[in-house]
Amino acid sequence: MKNKEILKKAIEKAVKNNWEIVNQKVVDYEIDEFDNIFLFWNDMNIQFDIFEIIFSHDFAKAFWGEDVFEFETLAGIHGYISWQYHIQKLAVAEDKFKYLEKFI
Question: What domain range is 87 assigned to?
Fold first, then answer.
């Protein structure tokens, strides 16, 4: 899948999961020919670049959720909130889009 298609599907998933920015639900989006992303809610739209979106905490919460998961290591049991764990993994992923693609 191409990066733009991955991005579209990721945004669609976040919108479906009630993605909010500043306590306003994102209702639609548009990606132009220069890969600028326009998000729409109420009577507003704002332009963002790709990395502003995928590293946004609001996007991450809607995309990965806020469930807590635990895992055990030799050092003990660790708990992570899903979106916080995945945004960290996304930050160090060599290919950000391939990482997102695993979850759409």
Answer: 3-101
